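Example 3.2
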Amino acid sequence: MAELRPSGAPGPTAPPAPGPTAPPAFASLFPPGLHAIYGECRRLYPDQPNPLQVTAIVKYWLGGPDPLDYVSMYRNVGSPSANIPEHWHYISFGLSDLYGDNRVHEFTGTDGPSGFGFELTFRLKRETGESAPPTWPAELMQGLARYVFQSENTFCSGDHVSWHSPLDNSESRIQHMLLTEDPQMQPVQTPFGVVTFLQIVGVCTEELHSAQQWNGQGILELLRTVPIAGGPWLITDMRRGETIFEIDPHLQQERVDKGIETDGSNLSGVSAKCAWDDLSRPPEDDEDSRSICIGTQPRRLSGKDTEQIRETLRRGLEINSKPVLPPINPQRQNGLAHDRAPSRKDSLESDSSTAIIPHELIRTRQLESVHLKFNQESGALIPLCLRGRLLHGRHFTYKSITGDMAITFVSTGVEGAFATEEHPYAAHGPWLQRPPSCELPSRPVCSPSCVHSFLVISQRGNFCSWQLTIPRGNLILLTEEFVEKMLEDLEDLTSPEEFKLPKEYSWPEKKLKVSILPDVVFDSPLH
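Structure, written as tokens:
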């Protein structure tokens, strides 16, 4: 629950919001972290000392459901000469440490980040005749903040959020988000650390897919060059009916396709509906088979990457009990759903895998034939895995959201892999599948729920993707020539609306089969 009121202390006689010109008596009433952020807001909006504000009625630290204490809403006149339209500017308060007394965030000193180190902002184009800002962006920001608090994963510029629903719950084509630095808000040094400001940018599905196949920063730069799609300040227009590729068809071929060919993809993994079968043994005998790695021939990773992966596989797995993303209620009334998210331990551990088996006790066995299974959305990313990652000497992971399994595509330049050209399919036991921090810059997290859940992908380096308990692990080695063959055969996956499910692809000479199946198949306990 939240209420709308002018900013300031609760109550009808609230004092002016603190800032550079606030009276000292009033400034002392405000927590220091809150005061510091308000100061930056007052620098940017000196003529709006008391903006409208959505505030959580019951604060998060008192047991309320909404992590953000406040979301302030300012009217920004833009700059018509620079193609920057008038818009509403939303700024969150609560992802950083506002209080410094450990009620929400642990105080770790003034030199590092304050709380999670950032606050969210959002710029929404003002409609003609609109006298007050819509409040739905505050609900959107609360949903993202809830994910951050429950997963303890942070955002950074270039991340994208797959939301699968119009951001304002309308019929808009703006159904996903990218994140970037706010073009006006400057980092703030508070008594509890540094706070930066990350702006949410609404995008269409086609733009999200391009960000996945290439990288978020590249798509953000393209959006900046198209005034009606965001312009220099990346202002979201929920009425925008065309993608940047429909507005300027040359962008896809001349910028995105060339970027993918030259740079590859920064997307190193997703949470997905996926499964696999070992076709070389009876279906009921599934011992030692659940997680797969798929690779191409020698495009070697760096020595540091190789050592990190080898060491990770050797160490095994540490159980992580932090919760994952909560399901999002498609009926967004009076805020987002407040259901408790299952913990990672709840959703990722199986009864048979609660204990970590020492690496030296795990036997490796060769497999003869493998069957990979994906739902339609996950299957559409296979060409990206092959073209954007493997052919550039990188790797990619599908983490199942319906069970303890993963499918990882990895370059065979990694030393210590179990599979060889003589034995291209191999099975191994428990391990932590964590792409190396310096090479794989993604951080996928997804809820084990319906399509209205959202998926967060990070494109920052030095970040551990996830930790999970995988009871069984496998590796498959593919030659570069075969990867090219697969890309040719899987070409129709780039237009999934043109084929009916189920869809099957088979390479008998390689003893490999891939099936694209309806979502309902993965809801079965067998998966």
